[in-house]
Design brief:
Elements: E1 7-8, H1 14-23, E2 27-32, E3 36-41, H2 44-52, E4 56-57, H3 64-67, H4 91-101, H5 107-112, H6 114-128, E5 136-137, H7 138-143, H8 145-155, H9 159-173, H10 179-202, H11 208-219, H12 224-254, H13 257-264, H14 270-280, E6 286-292, E7 296-298, E8 301-303, E9 308-312, H15 313-317, H16 320-323, H17 353-370, E10 374-376, E11 398-401, E12 407-410, E13 416-420
Parallel strand pairs: 1-2, 3-9
Antiparallel strand pairs: 2-3, 4-6, 5-11, 6-9, 7-8, 10-11, 12-13
Length: 428
């Protein structure tokens, strides 16, 4: 029976839920699918404290509800708490796993990917062709295939295997699935990655999967389960979060044409767009879990030992205590946009952050250079959010490029209020 005093979190419309969470205070009790209780941390300063506090750990063995069997093993969010990878590891275990994977994300290796990223972007934009009067789902045409191709090449996933693997990874973020469907997807993902590992053991290449296998087989630093789940994390998160970053940035610009004009006229760079998007509309809204090793008193709330703590990055990104009274607005003028927590904080700071930033910057730059009059092909209010409690993005993003020399201006409800002159001819 649901507790009426708790806020019940449901897939989709994550920003409205984040706003409700934040108004309840820095720490509040929520109910997840299956009537699972967690403590949600929603204010920026409090979330930073939790992320740096050793009393909040990643090891699921500290979660009493799980260890005592009160949560079924086929729980809808089980794939977020049971894997043996960096997301669920602490201390030396985490450092060992992170050290093995970090070689794929050195600054030099990331920068070396830029020419290939540009090549992929240009190929995808060529396939989009002219958009005058024609609607295209930007997710399917650009935002999904770009990071999926990049991460697949980095980890040696053959082209024929990418679409099936992507569907399995996407299921991890989809909380509209039944328990049996979620469990089947989890098994399918493990089996698919086990096949990848088996193939790479036979035919190794110059890719990160082969490098991780070598670490596993050569030094016994990585067991088979850790290897499979590390691949699941790096491949799945590697494309999904970047895909949503790209879509959220395009959506932000197209619903804020004055801000877009500032970029197209050179007042702000694409890096500023990326950082403000990460603050205002992060790819991950909520991330399970940290667990309390002992009873913790936090912001006047007593969190019992063995509790699950949900990290609400979406709520923290719009925290007015951190980002001012205009925190709810997408605004390139702000000086503190890069102080967001979209990539977490501390020891678990996202390894893939430089790659995500690079891909987003390059694709936005080239997309709006090719299609400076890009516009939404549907009212913003009609866009459908992903059916997820974790990932923050759109099921699709229909766009077109108007043949008119005018750029649409959207109101708060997402409808076109008026057309404004071309960029640079009217003050933003």
């Amino acid at each position: 029976m649901a507790d009426s005093s708790r806020l019940v979190l449901t897939p989709g419309d994550l920003h409205r839920q984040s706003d409700r969470l934040r108004t309840r205070g820095p720490v509040t009790v929520v109910e997840l699918p299956g009537e699972v209780e967690a403590f949600a941390v929603t204010w920026d300063a409090t979330l930073r404290r939790v992320l740096a506090d050793p009393r909040f750990v990643k090891n699921i063995g500290h979660w009493l509800a799980w260890s005592e069997g009160r949560i079924p093993r086929d729980w809808e969010l089980a794939s977020w708490v049971v894997p043996e990878n960096m997301l669920t590891a602490d201390g030396d275990h985490h450092r060992r796993l992170r050290g093995l994977v970090s070689q794929a994300f050195t600054p030099g290796r990331i920068e070396a990917l830029a020419p290939r990223i540009i090549q992929i972007v240009d190929q995808l934009l060529d396939q989009m062709g002219s958009l005058n009067g024609r609607h295209v789902d930007l997710k399917a045409a650009l935002a999904l295939p770009l990071p999926l191709t990049v991460i697949s090449e980095l980890f040696g996933v053959a082209e024929r295997d990418r679409a099936p693997l992507q569907e399995l990874c996407a299921a991890v973020f989809d909380q509209s699935l039944t328990r049996s469907q979620a469990a089947a997807a989890q098994r399918g993902l493990q089996q698919s990655l086990a096949k990848l590992v088996a193939h790479k053991r036979t035919v190794p290449g110059e890719d990160m999967t082969s490098a991780l296998i070598a670490a596993c087989d050569g030094t016994d630093q990585l067991d088979e389960s850790e290897l499979i789940w590390t691949l699941a994390l790096m491949i799945g998160a590697g494309y999904e979060t970047t895909m949503n970053l790209i879509l959220n940035a395009v959506h932000a610009l197209l619903t804020h044409p004055r801000q877009l004009a500032l970029v197209l006229t050179g007042h702000y760079g694409w890096d500023a767009v990326v950082e403000e998007t990460l603050r205002w509309d992060p790819s991950i809204a909520n991330l399970p879990f940290r667990y309390t090793r002992e009873e913790v008193h936090l912001e006047g709330v007593v969190i019992p030992a063995g509790s699950a703590v949900l990290m609400c990055y979406g709520a923290a990104g719009r925290d007015p205590a951190r980002h001012g009274a205009t925190a709810h607005r997408f605004d390139l003028h702000r000086d503190d946009a890069s102080s967001h927590l979209a990539f977490s904080h501390g020891a678990h700071y996202c390894l893939g952050a430089p790659l995500a930033r690079l891909e987003a910057r390059l694709v936005l730059q080239r997309l709006f250079t090719r299609f400076p009059r890009l516009r939404l092909a549907a009212p913003a209010s009609a866009l459908v959010a992903m059916p997820s409690l974790i990932a923050n993005g759109f099921s699709e993003l229909p766009v077109t490029a108007s043949p008119s020399p005018l750029t649409p201006r959207y109101g708060e409800n997402g409808r076109v209020e008026e057309d404004v002159p071309p960029e640079g001819q009217r003050s933003a």
